[in-house]
Every structure is written in structure tokens, then in C-alpha cells.
Amino acid sequence: MRAAYYERKGPAPKVIVLGELPDPQPGPGEVRVNLRFSGINPTDTKLRGGWDGNMEMPFPRVIPHQDGAGVVDAVGPGVAQSRLGERVWVYEAQRGRAFGTAAECVAIPSENAVMLPEGASFETGACLGIAGMTAHRCLFQDGGIQGQTVLVAGGAGAVGHAAIQLAKWGGARVATSVSRPEQEKIAREAGADLVVNRKTEDAAARIKAFTRGQGVDRVVEVAFEANLELNRAVLKANGVISTYSSGPPESAPRIPFTAIMRQGISVHFILVYVMPREAHQLAARDLNAALDAGRYRPHIARIFKLDETAKAHAAQESGGTVGKLLIGV
């Protein structure tokens, strides 16, 4: 199979190469997926670049990327033959493993290959895993959100864009913040009821007006430390902040304990890779249900070729791309 891989950490153009590797064979409880698309997430580039200062390779050779979509073309012992030929989307393909989805095929645990709804494209499937599951956990960890008001920070980002659509599917009213004019259209098209440019508008005043002074029930947060004061200002008593990012790995946010305690605010720290198995299964079920209902459509910024994987990583790291980046395999 053709695969993009690296054998040392560092800048993408210097370490990612394209080569021929043996086709993986599925082990017990595994399936092999003939991939059509591979999805890139920030954790993929951070791991390759040694974002946390760790430049040690976890394996001698790494094929990056957690997400993808394709067709099951082989099954291992203990997996039903009926899975052969199934269209699937893939999540956490490289978690604890050397080989991810930046290749023509990947062998993964069968439960990490989820049947792709009939009307959904492989491109859509390759966007679902990390971003969709993170957004789902941020929204539904405490149960349903029917009738609630949710604030989504960064509504044009991959997780934020997914959170807007899943929150609307779940019956919530949604306000979202963006930082650039071109992001406003994307957030509105995702279904946000209110879009606020946090750099040019009084975000707190507009959100309070949107809720008629009642405040929001829940915040899906991409910048915990930077937005903490805004969130305190717009949350109802006993509201929830579900945050999946705050800044660099050495970030150590100052938390005003007494102020947060007096508001009864709960804070959930969300990392998809440590979610319980049941949470993964629930997210997969709901993501497919939203797809089936026509309520979830990822925004794809660009599709690269497999031999452009290094360029795709550079684009992801630039911070200027709005939408998901995919690799056509």
C-alpha cells in the first residue's frame, strides 16, 4: 500500500515521506478498511511536531491521522463476514497504534469502524471522528439539551461547527462567537441563531440580549482561559462549561474558585481519547442519526492528495484555514 509516514518528529516537510509499505492484516476483533479519505486533526500535527516538547518517537514508524472513511475489505477472527463491503467511517485509528489513516488501508478494532449512512459521502465520513465526538461529548455529557441555550465558542472551527449543528439537532438555541468576517457565514449556515464577532462587538451584551437576560445553560469552549470571564458573565447559575482546549501545553489557567463556586458553574474537561467506551458508542449513534436526518454537514476547506500530506499538515498548522482538511487516498 502507499502511505505517508514519518520516522522522526519535526517539521512536516522535513519528516513526512510517501512510500510503499506492506498491507496490514486484521487481527482478532479487527477489520481492514480500504480508505477513500483521511481526515486531519490538530492532534495529528501536534504529535508529529512534538508539541508538548516530547520528540521521542512512540514507534519506529508512524502513519498519522485518526479519522477516515472507506470500505471494509477484510475481517479478522471473531468479526462477522457480513462486514465485508460495508461503507464505514473510522475514528481513533492511530490511538495507541503506529499506523493511522494516511494510507491506502488501515487495520483497526471493528468497533472503531462505524457504518456510514447510505446518503453520506466518504468525504463527510472522514470528518466525523475526533471533531464530531468531541462536540457531542461537550454537549450531551450531562444528558439532553432540548430547550436549552448553548454558547459555542469558535463556531467556524471543526469542533465548533459540529457543535452548532448537533446542538440544533438536539433541540437547543445556539449562540456562537467568531473572530473573522469570513467565519460568520459558515457559522450561520451551520444553523446558529446568533453569531457574534468577539473582536468587533460586545459579545457579553449581545449574548445577554439574545437570552433576554437569562443567560446560557452551557458553553462549548475552545479557549478556556481566554474566555473564562466572558463565560462567567453570560452563564446562568449552575451552568456548564465544557472545554476541550485552552492554549499551549504549559497553559495553567488561573481559576477564580470562589466566584465560580458562587455561580454554581460546573467545568468539564473533554478529551476524546479518554472518553468512556459508552460515550464513544453514543456519539457514533447520534452522529449517524444527525446525518440521517440531514442535520449535520461538515465544512470541508480543501482536499489534498496523499503525496501532499506534508502540505496538508502545514496548512493545518497555519491556523488560517477555515474548515476540515482531508487527504484523498
Summarize the structure.
The chain is α/β, with parallel strands linked by helices and 329 residues long.
CA-based shape? globular
Count of the separate structural domains:
2
CATH superfamily of the largest domain: Medium-chain alcohol dehydrogenases, catalytic domain
> What's the CATH architecture name of the largest domain?
Alpha-Beta Complex
Can you tell me about this structure?
- By secondary structure, the chain is an alpha/beta fold.
- It folds into two domains: 2-129 and 276-328, Quinone Oxidoreductase, Chain A, domain 1 (Alpha-Beta Complex); 142-269, NAD(P)-binding Rossmann-like Domain (Rossmann fold, 3-Layer(aba) Sandwich), CATH 3.40.50.720.
- 32% of the residues lie in helices and 26% in strands.
- The chain is built from ten helices and 15 strands.
- The chain has helices at residues 12-15, 42-49, 122-140, 158-169, 181-190, 203-210, 224-234, 257-263, 277-292, 309-318, and strands at residues 2-5, 17-20, 30-39, 67-75, 87-90, 105-109, 113-115, 149-153, 173-178, 194-197, 216-221, 235-243, 266-269, 300-305, 324-328.
- The strands form three sheets. Strands 3, 4, 5, 6, 7, 14 and 15 form a seven-stranded mixed β-sheet that branches.
- It starts with a strand and ends with a strand.
